[in-house]
Amino acid sequence: MKWVYSFGSLICEGDASHRNLLGGKGANLAEMARIGLPVPPGFTISTEVCSYYYDNGHAYPEALTSQVEAALKQIEAETGRSFANPDNPLLLSVRSGARASMPGMMDTVLNLGLNDEVAAGLANASGDARFAYDSYRRFIQMYGDVVLDVDHGLFEDLLEDMKMRLNVFQDTDLGAEDLQALVAQYLQLVEDETGNPFPQDPMTQLWGAVGAVFASWMNQRAITYRRLNDIPAEWGTAVNVQAMVFGNLGDDCATGVAFTRDPATGAKIFYGEYLINAQGEDVVAGIRTPQPLTKAARLAAGSTEPSLEEVMPDVFAELDRVRGVLEAHYRDMQDLEFTIQQNKLYMLQTRNGKRTAEAALNIAVDMAEEGLITTSEAVLKVDAEALDQLLHPTLDPNAEKHVLVRGLPASPGAANGEICLTADKAEKLAADGKRVILVRLETSPEDIHGMHAAAGILTARGGMTSHAAVVARGMGRPCVSGAGELRIDSNEGKVYLGNTTYTEGDIITLDGSTGEVYAGTVATVQPELSGAFATLMGWADAERRMRVRANAETPLDAKTAREFGAEGIGLCRTEHMFFDTDRIVAMREMIMAADTAGRTAALDKLLPYQRQDFAELFTIMAGLPVTIRLLDPPLHEFLPHGEAELAEVAASAGIPLEAARARMLRLEESNPMLGHRGCRLAITYPEICAMQARAIFEAASEVAAKEQPVLPEIMVPLAGTSREIAICRKIIEDVAADVAEKTGITIAYQIGTMVELPRAALCADELAQQAEFFSFGTNDLTQTTLGISRDDAGNFMEAYQDQNIYPTDPFVSIDVDGVGKLVEMGAAGGRKVRGDIKLGICGEHGGDPKSVAFCETVGLDYVSCSPFRVPIARLAAAQAHIRQKADS
Amino acid sequence: MKWVYSFGSLICEGDASHRNLLGGKGANLAEMARIGLPVPPGFTISTEVCSYYYDNGHAYPEALTSQVEAALKQIEAETGRSFANPDNPLLLSVRSGARASMPGMMDTVLNLGLNDEVAAGLANASGDARFAYDSYRRFIQMYGDVVLDVDHGLFEDLLEDMKMRLNVFQDTDLGAEDLQALVAQYLQLVEDETGNPFPQDPMTQLWGAVGAVFASWMNQRAITYRRLNDIPAEWGTAVNVQAMVFGNLGDDCATGVAFTRDPATGAKIFYGEYLINAQGEDVVAGIRTPQPLTKAARLAAGSTEPSLEEVMPDVFAELDRVRGVLEAHYRDMQDLEFTIQQNKLYMLQTRNGKRTAEAALNIAVDMAEEGLITTSEAVLKVDAEALDQLLHPTLDPNAEKHVLVRGLPASPGAANGEICLTADKAEKLAADGKRVILVRLETSPEDIHGMHAAAGILTARGGMTSHAAVVARGMGRPCVSGAGELRIDSNEGKVYLGNTTYTEGDIITLDGSTGEVYAGTVATVQPELSGAFATLMGWADAERRMRVRANAETPLDAKTAREFGAEGIGLCRTEHMFFDTDRIVAMREMIMAADTAGRTAALDKLLPYQRQDFAELFTIMAGLPVTIRLLDPPLHEFLPHGEAELAEVAASAGIPLEAARARMLRLEESNPMLGHRGCRLAITYPEICAMQARAIFEAASEVAAKEQPVLPEIMVPLAGTSREIAICRKIIEDVAADVAEKTGITIAYQIGTMVELPRAALCADELAQQAEFFSFGTNDLTQTTLGISRDDAGNFMEAYQDQNIYPTDPFVSIDVDGVGKLVEMGAAGGRKVRGDIKLGICGEHGGDPKSVAFCETVGLDYVSCSPFRVPIARLAAAQAHIRQKADS
Predict the structure, then answer these.
(1) Chain B residue nearest residue A765, CA to CA
(2) What does the CA dihedral A784, A790, A792, A794 come to, rounded to 10 degrees?
(3) What is the pLDDT of residues B33-59, one digit of tens each?
(4) Distance (Å, rounded) from C-alpha A732 to C-alpha A695?
């Protein structure tokens, strides 16, 4: 079994394709060596050793020692130096290198191989004692810190003490003897702190560093990072051991980092920084200020310190050549690390550069237009999820701002407006043309009209999946939730934001992408959806198989959806239409009614509203399909919470308060998620279903009468059996026939169902006998399949992610093994009975790129998501289809 | 297509195997004719006509008319009489006859074919005008009632008026002319009520009666009956048309009903009644009192009226011969109808006789011992569900009783005791040796110790699946729930039962099988589990493949379970152990604790209790497997509801009331069913899992140290991933190792999981890597798969059953198509990875015969149910295995 892979100009056992085995850094070092770029020789201990290490109680495979020794010999052969040999010492760097770049792990130990004797030898060999002891003291500090777990502040203290004693300010002001004394102090410090002398044996040092890399794979920071970035713990890390090169051997030495293009904007300029006579750590440490690589950048920054281009024109030219070689080779923007030792360039790392969404977009489009990559590749190069940054207004980066409080970044985008404490007032002010920030302790379905009217939403309570957060994301409203330092005094109309008191009507600004709330008006910048964005989306649409629809119920949402390229409405949640001030009264009358006649009378009042809603949607969607879901939530969601409001409801329904309270108590449920909702409402109160069907068909006829096409799809929610759909179908068809007879206009329509119960997926063949389409409601399907209430998951979901039970929140990305299996079974069952059944997904997974990719594998016909995520879904669908084609 | 099947001595087209096609009655008439018994000739219109009728808008198949006419000719040929011919009239009976016997449908029209002219002819032909007009007036009344929907009371009124006018008391006192006059009044009544003259055309009469039978298939009573008895609407009914024979042509005529054995006790005696000179309807009408068939029965009843055996010894002998023939032929106890016309016996019906559970048991055992059937057949003959009647104490049938109020029969059995209003007091009184009836508005988990201590439970609120009902059934305690006329005044210690006021300590009796509550002590009778019961259960056990375990957590339950033949504990719900007065305090301290240390301190107090619980269970179960489920319910279930109690909790936990309230609020959940429970508790609070594991292993060691075998199986609840089980497994194994080290005793044990989430079943292969056994928790699996909260289903489940969406309550019998598919997938997935994985089911389905049969098809290893249902499960498992073998 091969555990160790050498790289260098003489022998090179890996290449870029070995990323899983060698980690990103190791694979790219081998690749650079392989294509002839100047890379100090070294070897990589593979990720399989890491897995072995954790599977076998922190033991190494037996053959590892001999393989490491052989690879070390190989470095010695290429460098002509000798490890642990004071006369001509080989020093090493040891770096971790996982498959994906991973901050939080042990990073680097430099200058490994130094001990008292070797340091003395290095001083002799280099003729530079200061360099030798500076390297030694750096090594002791790094090794002490990352391998031996000695607080690095203690080393800093000793260094500062010495500088103070000698009355100098810069490390560089310390001489060789000072440093030698400091080394002695450091060695003593390590012994004091660890109880053992600092290891003098270079091989012991090497194995110590290797062990520290593997151990750091499981430290808390690394675990957290992996969870946040969906990196499986099984991947493991590799360890890269490489001959040291020195950027700190004099003024013909330097070290630096660079991007082949601007990572912030994507502009095609050589972007980077360097330091003369420095080791790599100095560039990031911030003790000295690095200088720009190019003259143009220096001028732009107004700096007088020379650029690398000016100070070492030949080496710069070589570096610029390497830049071109690497971009052409990797066909992507690269992030480079290099060291110049005595005017010779060494490449220490290359990797695909991280970039902003804007840069990603511009680079992908530019590279395709340069002919470097195809348009398909360009589509694949942009992280669909990151597009979200570009689709919402953002704070003007140049604006001054003062943070009042912080909460959770619950729904992206920035907004400013006047503070408003109730949904009703928000709606009124918005109708008067005001920009409003709705500020609430928390929100409930009663607030939806106010949330819709508001420019942004701020709540004191609730997490990332609270009502406010979920609804705001669906609506594309910026939202900051759970701002702990927000208090509200509704009686006085006062809001306390940290230490500042505001009154309703005062202006604040919030940024839902960061969770920050600012004083006054901070200017916002509208997203730019033309240029590279439009070009790339055009390429994506050309590659896409799945359709993308939007979840929308208001005219504004529907218009936004179309602007973002939605090809229909995949989910119109009719209940949201009942919360408006003038409708909720009739809705509550309906709920309080004692019998069918009472319900019908109240429903008759709702009918005109619903009809108008649907007519507007049909008009906006202009013949694109509009999937309308029948009333879904349990009726108690429409009832008020306060006693005073209940009295109002009783009065308006004309029943005693006691009767209203009794009715409310009877509607209360232990588990509303699994309660009297969905089509269960239509079965027990068929008149509700009939009213909604009538509103749909009357609206459709009205629009069709104006020669405008309409395509309604009526969706039965929460069905578990075909019989439920059949009963609803009968009601709907009867109404359709009646409306057709009265209007003389026959509307083509479909009746389908939402597959959101495990039973629906398991019995999909049965359901398809009654359903012309399935829309997988994976929000609820996840709740039932996993037995996790989204509202209650807060108490354990973080522990579940930390402990790798659900590495990704299953409400964000679909749980492929569980919920996904049901979606597959549902699709297969549906197709078995009805070959042309239309299959889609609605709910938040429809806007999540990973879930969209899953939908492609199942061959769904469309995904539906909130309007603001439509471009994300379009891009994700294109990427999924390209990858699917490549795989097959 | 053949729609009509003749039977008689000349031609007989059906037999008993045609039950689905001809209905039970029709098939058995054909069968009797076929084996040479005297059956009046006739024909059956098949159930397929009924299906056709409903599938085609109440139209008949075209060929039906000619087939009926041909079959009618056949009756005429055999009887030598002629339909609609006044000179020698053939009269007909028309009866419905579904596949299963079905009250609620149209029953019978007799004497069909009579009109003014035929009645006059019949008077001539029979020489008995009174008989002719009596027959005619009966026919008009029957036909008017069941076919023409004329209120039968109106006919009775006319009859009574006439008797009053003539000053006579018996119908038989009316003469031919009186009856002729009555006929005229009846005809006028029908015309007045329906607006049409009574149909004089016999063929019109026949088709009217046939149509009425088919129509009655869909009347509300029939629909309700089908729902209650799980009869699919698709089955349809047949119509039997048969030549009339007359038991009312003189004193050499009679009619009667009989059972081949005593249907109440199963005793092998000829049991039945007859009336001289009467039509069949008179036997059931109760106008004349029927007499016993046999002399022995007459003597036993102390009657002086002669028995059939005495008055018509020859005919009786023939009937007794027929009794033997039929029992030998059908190999089951038969329920017969017969008519004797002028000393000739005619058989009008035979069917398997309905019987009490006791009779079923005795008949099955007797017949097997007589060699009439095999022991396997005997096992199949007893309805497993009906055994329930025999397993609980019942009210002494001879005791006097006075009903106070009625509620729902929530848990079977009878009990008496003193009224007690709180669980704590109930526990205390029971400990003092008192018999207690716990009377509550409703019960909650806090009451469990009191429910356990009580002899019976009575609640004012709650349905058949309320907390009280479910827990009481599980414990085998009689329970009457939802007694609307029960009011409780806790302050005064008063209970109002209807109009009677009781004080705590007063004695009442309740019958959980009927829902009735009685004044004072009504004597109860203990069930008899020896004799035929023991014999049959022995045969059943010999036929059974699946093991039967019990759900039990207390020593009493465990003992009961073993007495009823349980072969282990399949579900020990540890949370029930925490509600005892002295434990709940520590439990609440644990919940209120701010950190792990606080929780551990409180758990240390619970440890000795749990250890003792388990030690007792292990001792009682004596080496049989004991499956212990880790803590399952959300923690808020252990917190009190009242403010005063919360203050106590705060005080005992040593935290401010505000902090306790805050903690309680934080624990509240929107959907507790899908919340922070099951193994999610063990993952977030590993110390709870560790305490329980320690209690298990310390108890097991303690018992094992006494040389007694122990077999603990530790069950991880609500797992959806293998990782959850792995985390719990690690905690458990560590504790096991620690206890083994400290005690020097190593206990063999298994770790498995409850499969109660759809994801667990879908990913069973993954879970089986960590689980040595699966127990399908189909209660929760039904809730999640169907998305139906058991607690909230009340608002729609009845409508769902009425509308045939879920014909059977899926919480009573497993939903085979949905939940069953998951069980199958789970079993297959588990076996794929772990060939010898042990598979069982716990929860209420484990005691439901239909669900047990399903478990047999999946090949589960055991079912587990509440102790009182263990015999039911044993019998059901045997029946399922016998049927399974027969099918394969």
Answers:
(1) B817
(2) 130
(3) 999 999 999 999 999 999 999 999 899
(4) 11
Cα(A417)–Cα(A413) distance, integer angstroms: 14
Res. A233 pLDDT band, cuts 50 70 90: confident
Percent of chain B's residues with pLDDT above 90: 73
Q: Count Cα neighbours of A669 within 13 Å in the Cβ-side half-sphere.
A: 24
Measured between CB atoms, does B496 come within 8 Å of chain A? no
Residue A720 amino acid letter:
G
- Which residues 800-839 in chain B show a CB within 8 A of chain A? 800, 803-806, 815, 817-819, 821-822
Q: How far from chain centre, in Å, is Cα A469?
A: 16
Residues 689-748 of B with CB under 8 A from A: 718, 720-721, 723-724, 727
| Angle at the Cα of A372 from the Cα atoms of A371 and A373, rounded to 5 degrees | 90
Would you state the structure tokens that stand for residue B691, as one six-digit string?
Answer: 């305490």
Kindly name the residue from A18, A449, A452, A467 that is annotated as catalytic: A467
Pairwise CB contact (< 8 Å): A762 & B821: yes
| Residues 6+ positions from A519 with CB-CB distance below 8 Å | A401, A402, A404, A500, A508, A509
Average pLDDT over residues B602-624: 96
Tell me the chain A residues in contact with residue B804 when contact means C-beta distances shorter than 8 Å. 723
The 3-state DSSP class for residue A676 equals: coil
Write the pLDDT tens digit of every residue in B153-186: 999 999 999 999 999 888 888 999 999 999 999 9
Tokens describing residue A612: 């108008």
Catalytic residue positions of B? 467, 842
Fill in the DSSP letter of residue B87: T
If you compute the radius of gyration of chain A from its CA atoms, what whole number of angstroms results? 33
Closest C-alpha among A351, A306, A758 to residue B761: A758
Question: Residue A577 CB: number of other CB atoms within 10 A?
Answer: 23
Q: How far apart are CA B869 and CA B470, in angstroms?
A: 13
Q: Which segments of A280-367 are extended strands (E)?
A: 291-292, 334-341, 344-352
Preferred mutation among B681, B792, B817 to probe A, highest tally of A CBs within 10 A: B792
In the sheet with B414-420, reading across from the earlier edge strand, the strands are: B403-406, B516-519, B507-511, B414-420, B436-440, B456-459, B479-481, B408-411
Burial (0-12, 13-18, 19+ Cβ within 10 Å), B513: buried
Q: Beta B494-497 vs B486-489: how paired, if at all?
A: antiparallel
Q: How far is A66 from chain B (nearest CA, A)?
A: 35
pLDDT at B285: 63
DSSP A144-211: HHHTT---HHHHHHHHHHHHHHHT--SGGG--HHHHHHHHHHHHHHHHHHHSSPPP--HHHHHHHHHH
Confidence (pTM): 0.83
Which residues 106-165 on chain B approach chain A with CB closer than 8 angstroms?
none
3-state secondary structure of B396: coil
Per-residue confidence (pLDDT) for residue B20, from 0 to 100: 94
Least Cα separation, residue A756 to chain B (angstroms): 9
Whether A329 has its CB under 8 Å from any CB of chain B: the answer is no
pLDDT digits (tens, 9 = 90+) for B117-143: 999 999 998 889 999 999 999 999 999
Residue A796 to residue B683, Cβ atoms within 8 A? yes
Q: Which two tokens stand for residue B117?
A: 């002219």
List all residues 6 or more positions away from B377 whose beta carbon is below 8 Å from its beta carbon. Answer: B331, B364, B367, B368
The residue in chain A having the minimum alpha-carbon distance to the alpha carbon of residue B722 is: A805
Contact B683 A759 (CB under 8 A): no
Q: Hey, is the C-beta of A13 within 8 angstroms of any chain B C-beta? A: no
CA distance B577 to chain A (A): 23
Identify whether the C-beta of residue B501 lies closer than 8 Å to the C-beta of residue B372. no
